[in-house]
Amino acid sequence: MTAPDPAAIRAAMEEKDTLRPRDLAMTLGISEGQLVAATVGFGARRIIADPDRLIAGVCELGEVMALTRNESAVHERTGVYQDWHPGTHAAMVLGDEIDLRIFPKHWVHGFATRREDGAKGPSRSLQVFDAHGEAVHKIYPRDGTDLAAWDRLVDALATGETSDEVSVTPPPPPEGARIVPEKADLLRREWQRMTDTHQFLRLVAKFKMNRLGAYRLAGLPFVQRLGTKAVDDVLHAVARKGVPIMLFVGNRGCIQIHSGPIETLKPMGPWQNVLDPRFNLHLRLDHIAEAWLVQKPTKRGMALSVEAFDAEGQLILQIFGMRKEGADYSAAFAEVAETLPVLEAAE
Predict the structure, then answer these.
(1) Distances (CA, A) of 331 to 58, 73, 244, 245, 301
(2) Which of 42, 211, 244, 277 is deepest in the core (most CB within 10 A)?
(3) How many Cβ atoms are within 10 Å of 111's Cβ, its own excluded?
(4) Which residues are 250's β-sheet partners?
(5) Model pTM score
(6) Per-state percent for the chain, helix, strand, coil, to nearest 5
(7) Mean pLDDT for each 10-residue chunk of the chain (347 residues)?
(8) CA dist 45 → 26, 137, 145, 150, 230 (Å)
(9) What span, in angstroms and rounded, lies between the C-alpha atoms of 312 and 290?
């Protein structure tokens, strides 16, 4: 991907400072990672992106805001990074408020940004991008952040690289639904034998399919196609009834999870927004092309989820009933699911 001259990018950022970075990058025909790289030496520093170094350090900062997004949903959670579990292929943060699944190979480009002219004083962030320059995870300070520790961490992670350009590769084309019709009976038989939701992706990969392909093939009682309005209906219903949920939003390098109730919904244009004190969700309802009600058997009961996909078959989000006392089944969430508009039975 060829980027404009970094000086031209910085000029565009000054001229269009009301645009969000992701939107500005899109108008310039570059990745967001290239946009941020252009500010190295002008408020940004390159830092080590390796989560073993970065996240371990963030665990010492106190309360911060964690942000993970994809093209259609932004998940923001305020809390303390705790209970860090490093790993080469997958790592986890398992705190009560910040709950992440991390895939380190996609943590490629790291930046620490600082603007001195923020409305409340200097504004800071830690940002990680993948090899394509797409945002993987971002961290922002909050009132409870130890800013002195933040600055020490940035100094410790700084690579010393001063280039204001970054090399990125084009992202792979969207995969869409992968279906192997002749494996339908095998898929259903193995699905019925599941004892943990984490077995699902290994199961469908074994049959050379993916998540959406399996949903389209499996049919009842495993999945049911819902109207796209169902996702918004779920958010309204669980907010109105106080039903605690687990809400997952992810990308190639990170999945972020909110566990608990939601309260305040505020639509704005195509966006539905959850605006609670410690959890915000920004969801493009108009991007939802398919919604599914999914049942996965586990040894702790039936795990029920509502899942949304975009027109290219990419997963936008998943909503489960919140697990309690070792049980995957939530009767309250099942009651909500029973009221959802069914589009058609999967064949």
Answers:
(1) 37, 27, 11, 12, 11
(2) 211
(3) 23
(4) 255
(5) 0.95
(6) 30, 35, 35
(7) 81 91 94 97 97 97 98 98 96 96 98 78 89 98 96 98 95 94 97 95 96 97 96 98 97 97 98 98 98 96 96 98 86 95 63
(8) 22, 16, 20, 13, 43
(9) 10
